Amino acid sequence: TVRETREVISNRAVRDATFRYRVVDEAYHGRCAMTGVRMTNGNGRAEVDAAHIQPVDAGGPDSTRNGLALMKSFHWAFDRGLISLSDEGQILTVERGIDAPVLRMLPADLHAHLPSQAEQRPHPAFLQWHRDNVYKGSSRLPAPT
Fold this sequence. Notes:
Elements: H1 19-27, E1 49-52, E2 67-70, H2 72-79, E3 83-85, E4 91-93, H3 100-103, H4 124-133
Antiparallel strand pairs: 1-2, 3-4
């Protein structure tokens, strides 16, 4: 069967090619910010995405402080507002929308695994933007269990 082909032209903000390296390799050392898990493929490349906190299309820069290293499921949840972070790195989740087995992957204290160097940690302005414009839950911290 021969498939029809179509020419598609789109305008999209160009992303900095070094963004992934600076976020995933330099800042997070291949570990997911939400789970702390580090998985690599057969070539030793970390299997986490460099996620923008404030998307490029919404005016966010390709800076390390506007990035998180996230496993694909958490990247998806972050982009859809099902998960976010407080300025202090506490993980915020919506009441419903994420399956319990996925939530069990998060650390018991719900504290994200962030870079030790302050200049690589998410900037509060980008986190606030995400909570205000994307996150679907309450920005209040969950009650201790």
